[in-house]
Amino acid sequence: MPREGSIDVLVVGSGAAGLAASVSAVSAGARVALATKTTLQANNSSKAQGGIQAALGADDSPDLHADDVFRSSHDSADRELVSVLTTEAPSAIAWLEELGCAFTRHSVIGGPSGRRGGYRLARCGGASRKRLLQVGDRTGHAITKALRAQHEGGDAETLAHHRLEALERRGAGWRASFATPDGVRTVSAGAVVLASGGRCYAEAGLRGELSTNHPNATGETTRIACDAGAEARDLDALQYHPNGGAWPATMQGYSIPETTRSYGAVLLNADGEEFTDSLGPRDEVSQAIFDEVEAGRGVATADGRPAVLLDTTRISASDAEVSLPYMLRRYRGAGIDPLSEPLLTYPVLHYQNGGLVIDTRAETTLEGLFACGEIAGGTHGRNRMMGNSLLECVVFGRRAGAAAAEQARS
Ligand SMILES: Cc1cc2nc3c(=O)[nH]c(=O)nc-3n(C[C@H](O)[C@H](O)[C@H](O)COP(=O)(O)OP(=O)(O)OC[C@H]3O[C@@H](n4cnc5c(N)ncnc54)[C@H](O)[C@@H]3O)c2cc1C
User: Fold this and answer.
1) Is 163 noted as a catalytic residue in this protein?
2) Atom of ligand 1 nearest to the CA of 255
3) Is the whole model's pTM more than 0.85, yes or no?
4) 401 closest CA partner among 26, 7, 13, 15
5) Domain check: are 195 and 257 in the same one?
6) Among residues 31, 233, 282, 384, which one is catalytic?
7) If both were cysteines, with which of 26, 115, 151, 211 could 204 make a disulfide (CB 3.0 to 4.6 Å apart)?
8) Which domain holds residue 317?
9) Structural domain tally of the chain?
10) Ligand 1 atom 31, closest CA
């Protein structure tokens, strides 16, 4: 594309949401360019560990999934968006599998060769059913790998090292300006999909706190969209992951997967007492940890940071080997065996719950400007459940790509 290029659909961001939007817009027949701040692989989605939710258990349904989302959001989520999220979850999983993402299944001992067992489902915080699909504890890596292969094998153009700096209306479409290593570049598009994630890395820097996020999670795109006139909601609602690694120092900023608690780990105070429901909604579990430390019942790390204990010794070795191999490797590499001793943990900044207001087609309040993934608000209200972010990226990324292609055509 030349320095002043023109395209049907411009996608900004190469996480799960942007990749899903790009793939979907290409299959709807649009000419697509995907711009991203650094490389295709640099994003939060690739770091996601625990899993992705979908009501696939025999005792489950999209309605039960939606009830759990509302309860965890304290009724602040957008009902229409949640209904889309939970209803389309099973087909999103089927689509990812078609693209090559192999979710962990139970092995069928003695079954005919090639026969696969059912999905290995876990219960995550705030959920009434086991609903979390996993690829070990590197689910985001597996999902983005499959989406990236599809994106790269298709007709979309990738614009790496393009940082969005400004957006303005141009006729029926949009003009975007990017900072690149070779200077400013502009791209005109019939429709734009913003999929540039949240801002927790930058926010943690401002607050002097730790974050699980990739350094590219700086949030300027939300401001750019708001400057162009888009509406946002719940931007003040940032989520702490209850279980940041507190010690050793090399694990600070690592999020100990919530699946540790799905498979039996519990939170303990300095006296060895369980002080909260370890599988409650994230905001409640994080607050319980803050309160326990505030009340003087926490422990201190060797470098003087506050912490409580996560008793991972209650996880069976077989569950850990299947669902937590990466966590085991990381901690054992740092000299601690989570199956023999509890981990020190404290909440860390993790997720931007709010974002740009969208409708069920993922269109913002501005025509032809779409948003999906962490940059969009409403689906989780003010408190997201684990496993619903990757799901939101895929469900609304696909919707955004298809709707943007249609918009560009019209
Ligand atoms: C450690 C960790 C573990 C997690 N575990 C889970 C989990 O198990 N399950 C779950 O559902 N969720 C999990 N999450 C949350 C989830 O991964 C993210 O919220 C989600 O993947 C966000 O996807 P996204 O595509 O919206 O944004 P991202 O994946 O963050 O991608 C944003 C993209 O936009 C680009 N970008 C940013 N600004 C600009 C700009 N100005 N110009 C151009 N490009 C820009 C970035 O470089 C990046 O490519 C986890 C998050 C982290 C950090």
Assistant:
1) no
2) 1
3) yes
4) 26
5) no
6) 282
7) 211
8) 241-349
9) 2
10) 15
